[in-house]
Amino acid sequence: MIVVKIGGGSGIGIDQTVADLTDILGTGRKVVLVHGASGETNLLAERLGKPPRFVTSVSGLESRYTDRETLAIFEMAYCGKGNKALVEAFQMRGVNAVGLSGLDGRIFEGKRKETITIVEGGKRKVLRGDYTGKVERVNLGLVTLLLDHGYLPVLCPPAVSYEGEAVNVDGDTAAAMLAAALKAVDFLILSNVPGLLRDLRDPDSVVARIPAKAINEFLPLAQGRMKRKLMAAAIALEGGVGRVILATANTDRPVTSALQGRGTVIAKNEIAG
Amino acid sequence: MIVVKIGGGSGIGIDQTVADLTDILGTGRKVVLVHGASGETNLLAERLGKPPRFVTSVSGLESRYTDRETLAIFEMAYCGKGNKALVEAFQMRGVNAVGLSGLDGRIFEGKRKETITIVEGGKRKVLRGDYTGKVERVNLGLVTLLLDHGYLPVLCPPAVSYEGEAVNVDGDTAAAMLAAALKAVDFLILSNVPGLLRDLRDPDSVVARIPAKAINEFLPLAQGRMKRKLMAAAIALEGGVGRVILATANTDRPVTSALQGRGTVIAKNEIAG
After folding, report:
1. What is the distance in angstroms between the Cα of A46 and the nearest Cα belonging to chain B?
2. Cβ <8 Å between A105 and B91
3. Which residues lie below 8 Å from residue A148, measured CB to CB, with a gap of 6+?
4. Cβ of B91 and A103 within 8 Å?
5. How many CB pairs (< 8 A) connect A and B?
6. Chain A 41-70, CB below 8 Å of chain B: which residues?
7. Are A216 and A31 contacting, i.e. CB atoms less than 8 angstroms apart?
8. Residue A111 pairs with which residues in a beta bridge?
9. Could you tell me if residue B240 is left (phi over 0), alpha (psi between -120 and 50 degrees) or otherwise beta?
């Protein structure tokens, strides 16, 4: 079992990942794909005259402030554009993909944080009406049903709150929780960077191996989105996943090369790729 | 088994249908819901500076010209906004809904008509690069799997072409094909009109009963979208559906009241409601 998360930032192509996964599925391996669509969401929000607002929580994590209107834009970009583009790309290659959000079958379930405390201009501020949350539970029923019947699940946020509302959640964390629930052997986080970099300006400065227990020591190296990815890696490994690999989606056979050890490999026993 | 199609034209509310179906599901009846989102698609297209273009085929049917950009807008409105709003509304009422397009699991399959011949200003014109098509096959595998495991399938266009591409198809026809494939007892087409009207300006002029074999005689009464609905009714009845009912979604308990015979009831043996 492999769980692959492909980022949705601008500049991340899907074609190479889709082609590679098609071949891998042909060998009989089970795969679940999770994707983002943050770049598309920003673009759509701008075009609709509702530019994204990113806020920083008191714990220092950045998130998209998601009022009801933003939630609809988010769903259009994630479930409409991003998800269906992936499902179509697989169907064109003969893979019977099924695209779902965390709302569907309550796959990703968690708590809505209606009120968030943010830091803006050095001051604390309370924001209300937010539809963001955190995945606390993965309900595997529907995913397992699809896998058992030969479908490829293609999943994305939003998640569902305990009250049934759609909530914007971090895709890397959701994918990590899923990988843990499925006890995946490998959990790949593909994006537009080749892995964790010692020097952001130098793509050759990839940290090749991180022992699971040393993740925290590497957090200071991680900028922006990479911080979330390292935290997601920790969640997956604590949940029983064998190996987490951070790698680029923008290369030939991105999944195969990551499985061969390219990128940043994080594993309990420092297993080489 | 009931198949309900709820239109997506502007002015059609979903709340009453969702509440009513929640009660009906509670009685143990099996339901599949199909929905449109044409109003939302038009709105989004306008807001994105890509206004909809409706064309009339040589056979007199109106359709949305769907180039690649329009297809993405269509998917955002249907699979993103419309579908997830319904799934969320059901989840908030405790119904475990699963939202899917015809691409997912190849539920609605058909032929892409890349080239269409239209009539514009009295002249014939050939348009290329169109992503519209016609549902020719319903693959029940995924729908049956969901029903057997207690999920409520919430379906919408696009369909999938034989080559795997997303194609814009008429939702009423897709729902009719599905109702026929499922041998549904009842197939309801809910919209913002109370049924087939003898006089469009008079909502009390609903044609109450139509014998299946007489549908063609009523086609001249049908304007615009209603023509497609009558044709969809014919497809469903020919496919073995017991009863087709055209009724309004904008009333208290729209499904229950339609099942009790409100609206236009079309049936083989002129069964009363």
Report:
1. 10
2. no
3. none
4. yes
5. 127
6. 44, 47-49
7. no
8. A134
9. left
Q: Does A91 touch chain B (CB under 8 A)?
A: yes
Cross-strand pairs, A32: A3
The tens digit of pLDDT for each residue in A157-175 reads 999 999 999 999 999 999 9
Per-residue pLDDT tens over the stretch B65-110:
999 999 999 999 999 999 999 999 999 999 999 999 999 999 999 9
Token output for A87 = 């499902």
Q: How many CA atoms lie within 13 A of A51 on its CB side?
A: 2
- Tell me if A101 sits within 8 A of A75, measured CB to CB: yes
Largest Cα–Cα distance of chain A, in whole Å?
55
What residues in A contact B145, CB-CB < 8 Å?
Answer: 145, 149
- Which amino acid type is present at position B197? L
The residue with tokens 């003898």 is B198
d(CA A115, CA A24): 43
pLDDT in tens, B157-202: 999 999 999 999 999 999 999 999 999 999 999 999 999 999 989 9
CB A232 within 8 A of CB A209: no
For B41, the 3-state DSSP assignment is helix
In terms of Cα–Cα distance, which of A94, A18, A19, A86 is closest to B163? A94
State which residues of chain A have pLDDT below 70. 269-273
Comparing CA positions, the residue from A210, A154, A166, A204 lying closest to residue A74 is: A166
